[in-house]
Structures are given as C-alpha cells and as structure tokens.
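Long-time lurker, first post. I've been practising inverse folding by hand and with some scripts of my own, and I keep getting stuck on stretches where the structure tokens seem ambiguous. Below is the full token string for one chain I'm working on. Before anyone asks, I'm not after the true native sequence, just a reasonable design that respects the backbone. If someone could post their per-position residues I'd love to compare against what I wrote down in my notebook.
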C-alpha cells in the first residue's frame, strides 16, 4: 500500500527534488537549476501519483513514458529516477555532467536507466513524444479488445517556454491535434523566463489559445498547487480524442530566496550562499548535501511497490488476452521482435527482378509493397509527397483522426498503414523516431533530398540514439531539372554522410535498391538513409550476386587487363561510369568500375578488402553529382568529377550537358586528366 502523501510529506518530497537537483548542479558547477526547482511540484504529482511505470521492469511495453522536453533541466529527471527506484545511484547524481557518468548534461537514451529518449535541442522531445503517442494508438488499434486493453499507456511530459517557441513544436502539435492523440499529455512549465531575461522580450502570444486552435484540450493551473496539478492531469488522462496541454504557471528557481523568478537561476548554479540560505529557510541542515530524508525514501519505495503490482496485474491480463486471441498474439510478437525472413534479400530482389530503365524511387516503392508484407511492424509515410516519393502502401488504409470516445476500445482510425505527415518535415523525422522509441514499430519517412536540411536534427538524434529509423530522400541531384536550384541538392548527400552512426545508401539500380532496403530493415542500432533518383536508370550486371553489394562498395566491372584507372561512382552516376569505361577501354585504357552505394558500410570492411577494391596508389576517379571535396579520401590525388556550385532551372538532360554529366563529357575529362 502506498504511504499517504500528507501535506508535510509532500513538501518534504518536493524539497528533496529541488535540492538534489540544485546540489548536483552546484557540485558540477554547471547546469540549469531553475526548471528543476520550479517544476518540482509538477514532477512529484506526475511520477508519484499519475504515471504507471515500474522501475524493476523498464521495458514494460504498457508503461507511461515521461518526456522532459527541455533536456537542459536534466537534473529534475535524474532526481526523479533516483527517488523512484531506477538504477541510478546517488553517486551518479554527484557525478552530474562528469566523464562517463550516467547523468550527462542532457538525457541520453540508452545511457541512463529510465530515460525514454534523447532530449537535446529544444522542441525535439515534444515532437518525439507525439510519435510515441501515435505509436501507442496504432498498436492499440491492432491489439486491444473491449475486454483486454493491452495498450493504453500515456505519454506524459514537461515542456517550457523555450520549447513552445521552436517551430518543430508547432509542426508536431498541429499533427497531434489533427489526429486526436488523446494519450498525449504535456504540462507547459510557464515560468516566463529564458536565458536572456523575461519572456516578454521575445514572445507575447497566448500559447493556450494557439494549442486550442490546433485541437488540443487546454487547461490552466497554478504549477505550485499540487491539488490543482493533479486535478488537471486526471482530467487530461480522461481525454481520449484530444491531446492535452496544461499551462502551469510557475516561478523559476522556486525556493531560492534571492534568485527565484529571475533569469539568473536559469542556466547557472545557484551558488553556495544561495543554496545555504534556501535550505535554512525551510529548516534543512545547510551542511547536508544530496540529502534524502528517510520518510521520502519510504514514500517512494511504497509507490514503486504499488506500480509493480499494477504491472503484474497487467501481465495477468496480457496472458489472458494472448490465450483468447492467438492470432493477434502472433502478430504482436512479430511487431515486437522485428524478425525478418532468412531470405529477406532474395525476396526484396525478386520484388524488382528484371526491372530496367526505372527510377530508384519507383524501385523503392515496389520493394515497400513486399517489405510491409514480410514485416508487419514496418510503417511509414511522407511529408505530403507520396505521389513523388512512391512510399505509399497500395490498397492500404490511411491513419486518420480519432473517432471514438472510449479508450477501452480499439480505434480503427489508427489501424491504417499509410501515415500522412503533411508539410512538416522536421516533425516527421521526430515523430518517426518516437514511434521506434515506443516499441513495436520500424518506421520510414520520406521527402525530397534537398529538404533533408529541415530534417537534420531528427536524423542526427536518431544516429546519436542508435535508432533504426529509415529516412528516404528522393529527387537526389540536379536531374530534378526545371524546379531549379532551390530543389537541386548539391551538398546534401555528403552532409548526411558526415553524421556518425548513419548509413547512407545511394543505389544505382533495382538490385542495389533491394540490398539497401534489406540493410535498412535489418539494422538494429543505426538509422539508414536511402538516397533515390527521380530519373530512370538502367539495370546493371550483378553476376557476382548481392553479397558484394552488402559490403558497401564492390567491383562492378573489372578492367580488361591491368587497370590503369578506377572509376568510383554512386547512384545515378554508376551508369555514366560504366558507359565511360567502354569509351576508355576502346582507346586502350583498361578501366575498372567500382560501385559504392554505401561508403559507411565500405569503410567498415577490413583493409584487405578495401584495398582489393580501391588499390592504394592507383589512378582513381570519383563520379557523383554533388560536392567533390570529401571524395579525396578515396581518390587521393585523383580526379573528382562532381558539382560544387548550385544548379539551374532547365530540363534534366539539358543540365547534364551543361554540367558535363554525359558519357562523352565524363570520358573526355578522364582522358584529359590521364593525358591520353
């Protein structure tokens, strides 16, 4: 039984949260104490009285997820994790922001027990939480029955003034309101302070009205009144067809006698004198740091036991559901395991077998039709560009707005296979990440390559978090044509290749596209980007099978005789390299062609293999319709044929002639370089 939370005990718990946070920041001499102190009342109600979570089983699929969108306030989360019984001992709180500690400056998924997602850039946590909520709704639509609501978890978070100013929050909130994600609850910690000073120097809008206009259920309360906070959260949990925003008025740094309510407490430690004065004011021993009273320990331990009992009750219900619905249970297991057939590569290749003179975006679309049948957990959509990205599942329903009032029933609105993100690229990437984080889904999302600029934050966070999200980028070069330089990517492929722990695949034909997809759907600890063409490409000869392709770079055509030059190409330029080889061979220059669909995968091969494909010291030429500078890593003093200036508006074939990307032009550049 949970120990009664009397007013006195509540104050003691709140103050413990405040001073654990402030002490950790003070010891590190770095951090943001204001929000942890100001939002301590809110966090206490959420974690101790509203959330269903079990520290003894942190992968429980139906747990409520907590999202601290303002990740700079990480000591609030770490304090709650420690008190709630997660594997985060006091020593880690004392090592806040130090080398190899499990309490980094911003929460990092996979690093700290109980941290649900990496929240670094403001707004990213909020947008990712929308994906988590969508994932939960979509699983519920597939597996819940009236008797057995196996998935009814809520996503509960705290966001701040900085979050709601970020554009990605507006994008994500708009879609969440449109879909009616009633399992999403955010408390807006409205303390009116940012780093530069009072909020009114940069913002004067009515956030509550804005969210109401986007279809949210909005409430207002005093963030330091626990009863009001609890009542608002309970009303939010009762919602089923609207996401909830609770605008909670708070004082930043509450409890600090001289700095509370000012920007001085936002991003700097309080200082020993301020902490001492604050503790003395509430009767705490100022010489005790990182102090947790026995009564507080006992209370949180009782909460943990009660939550464990709730989880065990859910497991009993889940076992009954599994016995009553074996077909659903089998599909559920497929969702959670992400298993793929042993012959996945062969099946995906077969989906596009024999297709010649086809754009890789179209080939990818055909592969998707097969992949979703092999993997029930594979889901995705585009940023209002499905007719161009070819990412829709044919004949499948779309995910649309919530249509029922009872959270005990599956809502068929969320049972579709096609997601429509709207023109919200930044939010799209974050939502896709959130669905992966929730569990049970492998997501893909799509737009034009040039718009990857809008998506770099979620791509980077996916890589940092080791999430196997799939990012599809089509219209991959100046061959976009008439749309002009604003739609013609130049630096974008390499800007993605520079992100650590990200595989970038730029396939040249049907077989390479199938292998790229196989790599994407079987990845477990890294995201994948698929870079695809709008223009049609010829099929290549793959007598060597698919194994060489899976190594990221391979010899597509060996030279007739000892190679005098090696042409290294990716994607749509592979056919140019093959055709240029014919010209060079005819002129007596034995030429090897290397296709390099994934440089990251090639770089991961052993040195002997890499040297067998690209012989050190040999004459090498790179051919790719994008910036050239990074290619010198592979070609040494060789020739880089590419595009280092912006494109132009004209038909693609005209641009190819003007920019020197015809077979004759490429061959002549190589001949001139060789002095032949």
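-- Answer (accepted) --
I ran through it position by position. Result:
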């Amino acid at each position: 039984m949970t120990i009664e939370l009397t007013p006195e005990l509540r104050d003691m718990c709140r103050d413990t949260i405040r001073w654990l946070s402030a002490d950790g920041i003070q010891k590190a001499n770095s951090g943001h104490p204001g929000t942890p102190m100001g939002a301590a009342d809110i966090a206490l109600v959420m974690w101790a009285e509203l959330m269903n979570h079990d520290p003894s089983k942190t992968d429980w699929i139906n747990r409520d997820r907590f999202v601290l969108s303002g990740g700079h306030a990480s000591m609030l989360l770490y304090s709650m994790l420690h008190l709630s019984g997660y594997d985060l001992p006091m020593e880690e709180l004392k090592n806040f922001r130090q080398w190899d500690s499990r309490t980094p400056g911003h929460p990092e998924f996979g690093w700290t027990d109980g941290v649900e997602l990496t929240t670094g850039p403001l707004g990213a946590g909020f947008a990712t939480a929308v994906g988590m909520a969508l994932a939960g709704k979509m699983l519920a639509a597939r597996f819940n029955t009236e008797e057995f609501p196996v998935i009814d978890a809520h996503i509960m978070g705290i966001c701040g003034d900085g979050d709601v100013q970020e554009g990605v929050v507006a994008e994500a909130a708009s879609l969440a309101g449109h879909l009616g994600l009633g399992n999403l609850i955010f408390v807006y910690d409205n303390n009116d302070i940012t780093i530069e000073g009072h909020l009114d120097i940069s913002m004067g809008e009515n956030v509550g009205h804005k969210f109401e206009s986007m279809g949210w259920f909005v409430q207002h309360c005093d963030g330091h009144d626990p009863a009001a906070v609890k009542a608002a959260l309970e009303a939010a949990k009762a919602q089923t067809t609207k996401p909830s925003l609770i605008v909670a008025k708070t004082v930043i740094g509450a409890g600090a006698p001289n700095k509370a309510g000012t920007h001085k407490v936002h991003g700097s430690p309080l200082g020993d004198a301020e902490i001492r004065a604050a503790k003395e004011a509430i009767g705490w021993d100022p010489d005790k740091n990182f102090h947790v009273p026995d009564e507080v320990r006992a209370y949180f331990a009782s909460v943990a036991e009660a939550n464990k009992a709730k989880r065990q009750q859910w497991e009993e219900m889940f076992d009954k559901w599994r016995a009553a619905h074996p077909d659903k249970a089998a599909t559920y297991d497929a969702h959670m395991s992400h298993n793929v057939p042993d012959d996945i590569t062969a099946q995906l290749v077969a989906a596009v077998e024999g297709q010649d003179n086809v754009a890789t975006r179209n080939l990818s679309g055909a592969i998707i039709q097969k992949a979703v049948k092999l993997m029930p957990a594979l889901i995705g959509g585009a940023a209002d560009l499905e007719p161009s990205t070819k990412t829709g599942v044919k004949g499948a329903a779309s995910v649309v707005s919530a249509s029922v009032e009872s959270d005990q029933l599956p809502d068929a609105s969320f049972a579709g296979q096609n997601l429509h993100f709207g023109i919200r690229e930044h939010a799209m990437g974050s939502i896709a990440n959130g669905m992966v984080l929730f569990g049970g889904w492998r997501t893909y999302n799509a737009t034009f390559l040039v718009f990857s600029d809008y998506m770099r934050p979620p791509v980077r966070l996916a890589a940092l978090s080791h999430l196997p999200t799939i990012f599809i980028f089509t219209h991959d070069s100046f061959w976009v044509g008439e749309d002009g330089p604003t739609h013609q990517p130049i630096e974008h492929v390499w800007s993605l290749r520079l992100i650590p722990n990200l595989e970038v695949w730029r396939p040249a034909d049907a077989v390479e596209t199938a292998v790229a997809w196989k790599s994407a759907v079987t990845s477990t600890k890294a995201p994948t980007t698929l870079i695809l063409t709008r223009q049609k490409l010829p099929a290549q000869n793959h007598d060597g099978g698919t194994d060489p392709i899976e190594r990221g770079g391979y010899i597509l055509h060996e030279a007739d005789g000892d190679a005098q030059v090696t042409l290294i190409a990716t994607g749509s330029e592979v056919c140019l390299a093959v055709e240029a080889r014919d010209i060079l061979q005819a002129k007596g220059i034995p030429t090897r062609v290397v296709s390099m669909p994934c440089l990251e995968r090639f770089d991961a091969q052993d040195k002997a293999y890499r040297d067998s494909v690209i012989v050190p010291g040999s004459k090498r030429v790179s051919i790719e319709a994008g910036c050239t500078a990074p290619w010198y890593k592979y070609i040494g003093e060789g020739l880089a044929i590419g595009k280092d200036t912006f494109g132009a508006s004209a038909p693609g074939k005209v641009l190819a002639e003007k920019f020197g990307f015809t077979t004759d032009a490429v061959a002549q550049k190589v001949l001139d370089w060789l002095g032949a």
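A couple of notes from the structure itself: The first strand starts at residue 65 and ends at 68. The chain is about 40% helix and 15% strand. Happy to go over any region you disagree with.
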